[in-house]
Amino acid sequence: MSLRDFRKEYQNFVLRYVLPLMGLPQRNRPLMDTSEQKTNLTGELPVVIYDSERGSLTFTNKRWPIFGVECVESVTEDTKRLAENLCRAFFKVSPYHPDSFRERVPFYSQIHREKIFQLAVQRGICTWLFGSKNDAVEELMDLLEKWAVQTYEGKKVTFGFVISPKAEQVKLLKKDWFKFLGDDYAAVLTDCIHSVIQLDKECNFVKFLSLTENDGAIPLHKVSSYLPLRFSQCIHENVHDGAIGIFLLNNGDIVLSKDRQIKFVKRNLRWLNFSFEAFRAASCSRGNMWDGKLLHEIYATMLDVSFAHTGGILAVVTAPEDLWRPEAENGACVLKAYDNLRIEPDEKELGMLSSKDKEIVKIKRQVLNLLIAGKAFPDLDRKLRSELTAMDGACILSADGTAVAFGAIIRSDPESSGGARGAACRTLSHYGMAIKISTDGYVEMYLDREKVMEIK
User: Fold this and answer.
1) Contact present, 363 and 370 (Cβ < 8 Å)
2) Model-level pTM?
3) CATH class of 134-274
4) Domain-by-domain residue ranges, the chain?
5) Fold matches, 134-274 and 277-455
6) Using one digit for the tens of pLDDT, what is the confidence trace for 213-255?
7) In the beta sheet, which residues pair with residue 65?
8) So what's the architecture of 277-455 in CATH?
9) Which helix (H) or strand (E) holds 254?
């Protein structure tokens, strides 16, 4: 028997997969003593114990605690249930028996371990979403992953499905429907923006759903800050009352939606927590208290830029004037004063530019001020916000949502790693919060020059 080996494998799975999927901010989390935890546990194996007073999560095999992890963040019952489903899936594939700790089927290699754990994670997420094991949904996921690396007529394929427990009468059984779905004939159906296909819980075909069903007219819709702009109406109209949305996007991402929100995205074979709750927890993980409305709208723009694959930098600074103050080490400023949209540029500094550059700076400021029209960031048009954020340079806001700069070039540490955007974000995070969004759609959040969230 080897409790030590089992514990090491369990810890590796929890730290690498479970905590990120729970939406807990990225940081080193000390292991905690679990010897005093109670063992009179009930429910399915395993159990995750959240102790808000102690600031810990304890992972058990139901009989006794195995290890604890520091957790000062608030954990909801739904999030704890997700963790338990993930751990339960791990127990099914662990190379060590969860009760006796005897080694059973060993992994052939680290690659084998990674693939098995990824499948376990997918099983845990599906069980959490549907309340029980659902082989049909996992089979659908596998089918979508095959389509994710294929093209039809030279183009990437999209699919949108809504799995509804309240679905109407089944029109085609899964067996035949999946055969059709695996064929090229199906490649033109649904775009995830205006159309999806409704399935029942067993993935039998029910009907085609379109936003144009009302006599060919798309109804009015108030955009949700919990959803990317392009998918907002489709998800809002169809993913509610217990329904689950599963979408394959044309870049290969698989998106899971629940309660009219995006919950998880599968990118590069890894499931990632893309929820607002995870975003808020990361942004407030260093004791920062951001305006609630501003935080929602920054998250919304982050989604828009990420799913549009345009890339950008979003930063919120608590004292914008510090950005134009020479630093003690080198006497240089993080930003040029003429990028400050709140005050007129210094003629002395403008005088250092060529005539052509001076003209461009003045025109750029004029255009930006016309577009913004004195509005705070949350009050700007949603599409305009994402396009301004995608400009070359950084979008910088004050803590009250006032626009400080768009398309601003950051003077950053030349020794910083992670490319120009990463270096700029680390620099800006010294003054508040900075979010890097790559053209691949990956997201990184920085506070105090440290990464606290990563979706990649």
Assistant:
1) no
2) 0.90
3) alpha beta
4) 3-123, 134-274, 277-455
5) yes
6) 877 788 889 999 999 998 999 999 999 999 999 999 988 999 9
7) 60
8) 3-Layer(aba) Sandwich (3.40)
9) strand 254-258
